[in-house]
Design goal:
This protein is an alpha+beta fold. The protein has one domain: 60s Ribosomal Protein L30, Chain: A. The chain has 3 helices and 4 strands; from the N terminus they run βαβααββ. A 4-stranded mixed β-sheet has the order 1-4-2-3, with helices on one face. Helix 1 packs across helix 3.
């Protein structure tokens, strides 16, 4: 089974940002709320093992090694938490049944989005 979504969200690198903790918390909370609303409206049935590919669309690219991953951290934590509920916040992404891939695409000026692709390897369903 394969699920694909395009979410109009801006993902900035937070690795080198110097800001008050409440701004960072607020940004992460908003990103998580968008992902949660998407999942609750679509109600995907995700079976494990699963492969999650996140693609950032923006006019400029980020450093692939750490900045790209840090920009997607809150989003990935929320996706994994919805697929594997019941764990402490941010812990579900350590499950060995989940694999991850990060990518970037160049967008038009002022175009920001996130492409989410989830590929389930089995047909048995685990619903959150």
């Amino acid at each position: 089974m394969r699920y694909e979504w395009i979410v109009p969200i801006k993902l900035d690198s937070v690795a080198n940002k110097r800001e008050h903790w409440s701004k960072a918390y607020s940004r992460a909370k908003k990103q998580k709320q968008v992902i949660k609303m998407l999942f609750l409206s679509e109600k995907p049935v995700i079976s494990l093992p699963a492969h999650i590919k996140l693609t950032r669309v923006a006019p400029r690219s980020l450093d692939d090694h750490d900045n790209l991953r840090m920009a997607m951290k809150a989003v990935l934590d929320e996706i994994c938490g919805l697929i594997i509920p019941g764990l402490a916040a941010g812990r579900a992404d350590s499950d060995p049944r989940l694999t991850f891939e990060y990518a970037q695409e160049r967008g038009k000026p002022k175009e920001y989005a996130l492409k989410i692709e989830i590929i389930c390897e089995k047909q048995q369903s685990v619903c959150f």
